[in-house]
């Protein structure tokens, strides 16, 4: 390309150096993030379309660190945590916090909600995962059926047999699993049969233009119908408008999650949402 002159090239390498430096800085800062109490879990409500009530919470990680000038988005730090292996201790911490929180809401007499926690493929490759989760549930006193693990189709990419074995163990212990970002992976349909999945989370990229795009309408409708015939629940993520919601209702989607109802919020705010009288 003509425009790729010496200056552009130099700019390109500087940008790369900058990115590499930030990545290194991030991994270093991530090592101390937990002990320095820089991490926080926020919760986003999941709403039943049949009743309009909150039936679940998705735990989402937040990180603020002075070393990197403030808040770092999960889109940036989760990949760094995965590459460095730090997702294992960080992921275990999130599980512990979320399970403890779910127990605290029960103890406060609030309506029961499922607690959904995101798991990275790397966490899911660890054969000790079912044992770790069982231990956390027991120590915190939460019945396993309250916990829902959000997995992407990527968990099975590396070792499908191993992933299925871990899923079976979790299923036997009574923990629920959902497929996150459903429809964006490659192996969705062939693996669905073997996965002990409870719910499909329809990816927000399909939900975004649902009220205007005929193809997205068709895709979402097909996912909901397929899920129903397989006996799986559906939840749509990234719901931002009344129009999106009314289409999902028409299609008999089970649940929704998105800014239309609430952003992810700190636990005190979630508690308020949960205790608000409805109807
Ligand atoms: P995800 O699991 O697909 O989470 C949904 C993301 O969409 C969240 O971004 C959430 O804040 C955002 N969101 C929710 N409602 C709306 C909406 O109506 N519109 C739009 N545009 N976005 C909405 P967040 O919190 O930045 O997390 C990004 C990703 O980082 C997550 O995607 C998940 O893959 C990962 N992540 C977050 N927390 C954890 C964690 O504790 N462990 C692991 N392994 N991954 C995590
Ligand atoms: Ca998720
Ligand atoms: Ca998702
Ligand atoms: Ca996503």
From TrEMBL:
It comes from the Bacteria. It comes from Duganella aceris. This is EAL domain-containing protein. The chain holds residues 639 to 917 of 917 of the full protein. Residues 23-278 form the EAL domain.
